[in-house]
Amino acid sequence: MGCWHSSLSSKDPTSDHRHVHTHKPPRFSNGTTAAAPAVSDGGVPAFSEFSLAELKTATNNFSSEFIVSESGEKAPNVVYKGRLQNRRWIAVKKFTKLAWPDPKQFADEAWGVGKLRHKRVANLIGYCCDGDERLLVAEYMPNDTLAKHLFHWENQTLEWAMRLRVALYIAEALNYCSSEGRPLYHDLNAYRVLFDENGDPRLSCFGLMKNSRDGKSYSTNLAYTPPEYLRNGRVTPESVVFSFGTVLLDLLSGKHIPPGHALDMIRGKNILLLMDSHLEGNFSTEEATVVLDLASRCLQYEPRERPNIKDLVTTLSPLQSKPEVASHVMLGIPKNEEAPPTPQHPLSAMGDACSRMDLTAIHQILVMIHYKDDEGTNELSFQEWTQQMRDMLEARKRGDLAFRDKEFKTAIDCYSQFIDVGTMVSPTVYARRSLCYLMCDQPDAALRDAMQAQCVCPEWSTAFYMQAVALSKLDMHKDAADMLNEAATLEEKRQRGGRGS
């Protein structure tokens, strides 16, 4: 198979193909970093730098068919959906050329936003600086925007309980961002609220960065822009609260009503006139009055008279009803399939063990096949056969003994010594250490090793099988099922005499 590589000059098997910034963690070929975990809490990938080639491949060379949103002339940038090699769907925001002339400034801003991780946010997972290109990469939200569900719905309008849930979840997202030192959200509106695969509303991370270094922070109609922004051109935390007030008006009325007009209606006690007629009276007048009052306070002309972000959460939390009803039910959309579908290819013993998450059976198979998939190693010259090499192979031997005896923590230490020297790269060692990490309940590290094994041998089925198990442990069941099928396909290809294994 020819999967071993000898390279005294580099520890990273991908280092010959990729420029690695010295101040950033090195990356694998699918966009994850070597230093940070490949997947962080909740199955969200760790923030990393992507290559332009990766994002071109993911978006079919930024095809117009992949565009999910375009902004106006004031802030001309486009958002595409795309799919990475590891099957994850992403959203890619492509800025106009030279919107951020200084790549370091853009990268620093992106890394600042990329530190945020919260279930109420469509999180930022990466960026790209390549020549004049500046791109942001985020989790993809498949169930449209709040604007679509409020203003352009086809089958059913948003019910009242769901509108209250949207208001609370976005307030919670803003509160989290503020608590993490990112209180400024640029141009909050109904298009910035997205619905994930479970139908839960999330705040787009794209609004946490300006559209350009010196560009306008608001691209919507001036009637909806905070008055102080019109005076001094600066976004403040109070400006964000004003914009939140406009979103509350959208939720109440089902229309995009200019704040000034809405405030006149509120002052005139024309609450019922303001409410969305498509609700057909199916809402609590008391709850609507509380939300209207909150919106009115958010939209005050003087910033100091508006509530703070925590006040929004405190006011909206007691209004929540139907907590037992899932968001996708209220939206009337099918639930994201959690259970892995039936594999499209017959499974081998390894495939069956991985599909059943039987770590003991996987261990027995890896012990049995030993290093046969590493056959075809390059011959090493006499000069390369150093004491360092002997020490490295001795570390691998100790790791193999510990692995056989199920001393998984010891095996991790020994295999790490072998890998860190970097003179040889063994996919089997990565696969074995991946299983050790799974046995020690460290699925993030296990996935990283399995992905690294794939980098070394792109068509080795065991690397894909191990990724499938790690993804299942991270509750990424759809991705795990895709990976399982990929592995089975490669295995079938090898049996037919192809190159895969």
Note poorly predicted spans.
1-41, 337-344, 376-384
CATH C-level class of the largest domain is Mainly Alpha
Quote the CATH topology of the largest domain: Transferase(Phosphotransferase), domain 1
CA gyration radius, whole angstroms:
26 Å
Major sheet characteristics = 6 strands, mixed
The CATH architecture assignment of the largest domain turns out to be Orthogonal Bundle
Query: How many strands in all?
Result: 11
The CATH superfamily of the largest domain turns out to be: Transferase(Phosphotransferase) domain 1
For the termini, the CA-CA separation is 8 Å
Instruction: Specify the number of helices.
Output: 19
Shape designation: elongated
The overall number of domains is 3
Could you give the order of the helices and strands?
EEHEEEHEEEHHEEHHHHHHHHHHHEHHHH
Biggest sheet, strands in spatial order? Answer: 2-7-8-5-4-3
Sheet/helix structural class: alpha+beta
Proportion of β residues? 5-15%
Family: Belongs to the protein kinase superfamily. Ser/Thr protein kinase family.
InterPro entries: BSK, Kinase-like_dom_sf, Prot_kinase_dom, Ser-Thr/Tyr_kinase_cat_dom, TPR-like_helical_dom_sf, TPR_BSK1_C
Protein name: non-specific serine/threonine protein kinase
Region (Disordered): 1-35
